[in-house]
Design brief:
The complex is a heterodimer of chains A (652) and B (185). Chain A is α+β, with helices and mostly antiparallel strands and 652 residues long. By secondary structure, chain B is α+β, with helices and mostly antiparallel strands. Chain B has two domains: 8-142, Alpha-Beta Plaits (2-Layer Sandwich), CATH 3.30.70; 156-185, no CATH class. Chain B is built from four helices and seven strands. Chain B has helices spanning 25-33, 126-130, 153-167, 169-182; strands at 5-15, 41-42, 49-54, 59-64, 78-81, 84-87, 136-146. The longest helix of chain B is centred in the C-terminal third of the chain and has 15 residues, at 153-167. Classes of the chains: A alpha+beta (652), B alpha+beta (185). Bound molecules: iron/sulfur cluster (3 copies).
Amino acid sequence: MRYAETGFNLEIDLSRGSIDKVETDPRDTELYLGGQGMAAKILFERVPADVDPFSPDNLLIFSTGLLHGTPAPAANRTVVNTFSPQTNLMSHSLFGGFFGPELKYAGYDRIIIRGKAPDLVYLYINNDKVEIRDATHLRGKGTTETGELIKKELNDQKVQVAAIGLAGENRVFMASIDHNHASAARGVGVIMGDKRLKAIAVRGTKELNIAHPAEMFEICQDIHLKMAASSGCGDWMADDEDDSFHHNHFAWGNARKRIKNYWSDELQERWTRWKYDHMDRQTGCYNCPKKCRNVMSWPGKPRFGYKCFGKDTYHMAAFLELDFSYEILGIAQEYGVDSYATPQVMAFALELLEAGILTDKDFPDMPADSRGRFFYLLEKIVRREGIGDILANSVSHAAKQIGNGAEAYDHNTVKKFEQLPIKLGKVNPAFFLMLATGEKMSITQIEGSFPQDPLPTQEERDEFVKKWEAVPDDKFKEYFRNWKKKSEISDEATCDIVEWNEAMHYIDDAIGTCGFVSSFRGQFGGAVPYHVNNIPGIIALATGMEMDQQKLWKTAQRIRALVRAVNVRRGLRRKDERPPEDHWAVRNEEYEQNLLSKYYEFKGWTSEGIPTRQKLENLDLGYVADDLEQRGILKIDASATAGRPSAETVTG
Amino acid sequence: MTAGLTTKTVKEILVDIDKCTGCRACEMACSAYHATPRYSSINPSKARIRVVCDEINDEYVPIRAGDYTPSECNGRHIYTIGGKQYSECSFCGASCPSRDYFVEPDSGLPLKCDMCESVPALEVPMCVKVCGAEALTYVEREVKREEKEQVKRGEIEIGLESLVKKHGVQAVIETMAQISKGLKP
Ligand code: SF4
Ligand code: SF4
Ligand code: SF4
């Protein structure tokens, strides 16, 4: 019997209209757990490196995490992976809610979608009954609207739906996939749209088995209640009305201007009133006691839900106030666009207009005020009309297409992906490395375990480390105790910190736990319910696999290296690993490049950022080394390949 | 005639829908607790509590399963509470043909909340225990109540006789048969 997982993939070929239920190999679970780990393996094996993201051969994978459906609280992040036309690299996206667990109860660990449907369809999964259904009547419908319509059509309110809106249908690069009010960002909606897949609806009423039931339940119960009582997890921004942090420190407009004393008591009071006058309720995700999502109804606009910095991006890009975000978010969410990247694309366009690179002719009938302009641009982008057709390709691609100096305004992307608008004074070394080398594309998906800032006094630092259960090794306590100035920390410590921060995300995204109770949240306060010291025990109880801290750490590194290999095969190299030039005012190229080299070496990567054979073999990824050698990406190391058939004898 | 006073413990679960976030931890836990062996499998569709989204108000309402009923209500009430309308269904725990809650998905048999009765007894029922949002609270109340007087046989006879007079023997027999079909033994 399989525990914690179902042991089945659902394989859908939309070109052929075929549906297959395929049993998986439990040995893969040992090595890659689930979620992004298994998806990376599938993408590595089944999508050749030269496949265009818009080819029918690109795969779109919806994965459950290994702990989805078990009693583990807050294990509900559904993982979506594919290849992105924006970066040409692996897209990695997550959404909360109820979808992943429901898919497990329907009897599947993941859905692997290949091909393209002739016209808009949706996938209906009801346990063993799986159908590809016509969705032409849902064309142009909003994301949550589509969910509601499908539930009515199927006469089942318990169905969980993930859908794209108009943006995805029109292959807008910033298109998201939405489920209830949770959003899968970072470039996956575009591929769902390209495959002509409007939505996936899931209903599951089967059992999920647990290897060591009573102990598992007890441990999870304990974590559940701790989470409920703790202020150290969940999204504090759901209730904290003081948002001076983002407004005083992050850049406005096209990641351009900081307004250092923006926040005031008067403003906070006014904004708080806007919020509570229009908030319907706060909701959470499956089997989690937190309630991070604020559900809002703004007069005359569609209802929406938001989390975290998502409520600031639109008005900060438009130099407006919170009421503007509340006004536009409902519409944007129904169209299905990434609320982090999209406002930046719009602000970028308006800067080009101001600079004379684009002219009024490019924006026929555009209103003169900022509010009106953002609404105008949203419509143009999701419909790919006029200038919107270019802007829909994201900042980097639009800048190239527009030319005429527009490239200089593309100043906030890494690997062609829009970054958070954080423009600071001095380099924080760990953030430099994370932004440079991260492959989950947004810093929020890379940072998170080690605190962002040192504490001012030695007593406070000592006190902090005393209660710090989450550390993988006591050396981190020493790093923190001795850390006084943000930019002053040893390279050795920086490498360790980046590796820890990343590892936690790779673990979360394989087992399906939410970053707000794990990988993302430790940096604020340190007291996270899930960490590398208690997760192994939980995995062991749920699955019956042997697992300990060391093995879990190695698994995280294995998945990390595999993702790197997937991207290296598609051309990712050192030259792509540069944070935006103006991310910090004071830069030291020599120091930065030196640090990057040290980090590559620390990771067991070549000076180009390619994992070495030795490193890959240590991580049980010998087959990846073979492949990289066959392609000539890795040089064949004669000493390391002794006793193995020469790579030259194998055709690549 | 006088009837004696008896004491009975009434177990109640108080539901504060203002606090419910719709997380369905209660469903998860109830299904785990009722699995055999205990906790060995999770399946919210077998839970004896379901978090139903009240469609008029869009509020989450956790409902515990009550008795099975073979027929759905004919005409349902809509209540207005504090200016908001609620459908009667939003609070009803019946395992009823108009919806698929509280039906064992494999056998189709009705499910019913047993207040997690077990030996040894739980301090509080499972669903209450896992509800981190504290939307569910467990209370026990001692109530004294008068034992109802047994209705004397003669009264049923009198009643039936009047029905026979009014509707005829055949109609009463048929109705009795009809009613008893729907009753569980
Ligand atoms: S912590 Fe918040 S976002 Fe994460 S699972 Fe819980 S409710 Fe959802
Ligand atoms: S556990 Fe509590 S908050 Fe969660 S759905 Fe059940 S009643 Fe609501
Ligand atoms: S009291 Fe027990 S049986 Fe009843 S709904 Fe709650 S968990 Fe289920």
